[in-house]
Amino acid sequence: MGGDSSSFPLVAPNAHGAGSGSTFNMKKYWGNLSPWYSVPSADYGLPDASPLIPDGCTITQLHLLYRHGARYPTSDAAPAVFAEKIANATKKGFEVSHDLKFLADWTYKLGAELLTPFGRSQEFLLGLEHRQLYGDLLNNFTEQGTIPVFRTESQDRMVKTATNFAAGFFGVPEYMDEVNIEILVEAPNVNNSGAPYYVCPNAEDESKGYIGSTVAAIFAKDAFNATLARLNSQISGLEFDANDAISMLQLCSYETVALGYSSFCGLFSEEDFLNYEYYYDLEFYYNNGPGSPVSAAQGKGYLQEYVARFTHEYPEPYSALNETFDNSSTYFPLNQSIYADATHEVVVLDVLTAFNLSALFKGPPLSLAQNERRSAFSSSKVVPFATHFTTQVLECPAYQSTKQIRFMVNDAVLPINESYPGCEPNPHGLCSFDNVVSVLLKRIEEIDFNYDCHANYTAKAGVDYNGRAPRE
After folding, report:
1. To which protein family does this belong (predicted)?
2. What is the H or E stretch that residue 180 is in?
3. What pLDDT score does 19 carry?
4. Which helix (H) or strand (E) holds 81?
5. What CA–CA distances, in Å, run from 227 to 16, 83, 251, 271, 374?
């Protein structure tokens, strides 16, 4: 579980203007580009809850949904575009001074798409941690004479994510004989709960699926003015704008998780990093959180799969489920004591929205106004590199309903009583298994995948849709 040691061996300098005694940890303000860190349950109102099994309970089943580890940026992402801009300016001749001196001989050294070495280590350690915490559940497979099926997608970084997790969980080379890693094709028009956007047209519609990207870009236009003025005074032959500020902040994040250190980090103040985090908060809240009209529909497939594993009954469409794989005991076993599925951060957040885990999003919809940041939803806490959503099914004899369930995100136990009718407040985040399944079955019925993903409707930022499309 750990703390900041989880980001070893990454180094980040102090933010610009911060003293040597500053305790500000900029790596916790990089949104989905943050390295994973352990989140205390107190952040969500359960100060006495621990991710360890509560006293008097034993675990019977573990469900894990996790994101790939740190990766290089995509080939057409902002850092590569910025690098080309610098390369072109270098050819024409430009001068830099003070904080920007390093740019005189800086070159772009990042790969594209694949896991970084640190990202591979994140998943290996995630597997190792889960073996230590839940290894006893493997006895169920031994008794059945079977081995687990763990799932992932077909992108290289996704395959390597599942492989590194399995290597940490089972050991090397043992994992090759002790787990079946099922690789689901991630491609346009192919049903896959781990890549639902490919069969949800509205998810690719800028006015529906990318509301957050639009409002985040608007927010960024004036968020870094003071820093841009300082940096532009230190360079001639080139002028930086708000897009460049985001690019350089992303280079700070990507270079750190790829190379271990980035000179770009020291260009920005603590206030800049708070704005950088909020830029991502806006993007994810309105693209894949409750402010999105398509997020619950995209998360519905996984929600159905979870409930199928709870109830031992195969799920029924309509959603992004792949019927070929989700109606077979070979590809989709219903009797495992451990499940581990790898996916992308956008899908993890879609799933959390589909589960209606409202403790993650407390308060009104995120403000779009400058200088009105609110921190109830934090993208770095919820969707960092190697994020994981954990569900524990427990037997607790001290409770009237002995079978209990609880949900955790990055070690933080979530209270569910506010959004799950019939669940009483509990200091450990526990609720009756049967009650939770009943609530989730109603949620499945409530989410209309066909309408949310295909209908023509109007959506806007500033609204909490609970992940559902508005009805007009």
Report:
1. Belongs to the histidine acid phosphatase family.
2. strand 180-184
3. 82
4. helix 78-92
5. 10, 19, 16, 10, 22
Backbone dihedral angles phi then psi of residue 32, each to the nearest 5 degrees: -75, -5
State the average pLDDT over residues 303-330. 89
Contact 184, 151 (CB under 8 A): yes
Integer Cα distance of 302 and 298 in angstroms: 8
Q: What pTM, to 2 d.p., does this model score?
A: 0.96
Q: In this structure, are strands 58-67 and 388-395 parallel, antiparallel, or unpaired?
A: antiparallel
Is the pLDDT confidence value at 1 over 80? no
d(CA 223, CA 243): 11
CA 194, CA 184: separation in Å to the nearest integer? Answer: 8
CB atoms within 10 A of CB 385: 26
Query: What was the pLDDT predicted at 316?
Result: 80
What percent of the chain shows pLDDT beyond 90?
88
> Domains in the chain and their CATH numbers?
41-71+115-206+288-454 (3.40.50.1240)
Q: How confident is the model at residue 315 (pLDDT cuts 50, 70, 90)?
A: confident
Cβ atoms 246, 78 nearer than 8 A: yes
Tokens of 225: 């003015």
Q: What residue has token string 């943050």?
A: 34
Residue 391 DSSP one-character state: E
Name every residue whose Cβ is closer than 8 Å to that of residue 356 and which is 6 or more positions away in sequence: 419, 420, 443, 466, 467
E strand map for 20-158: 58-67, 95-96, 149-153
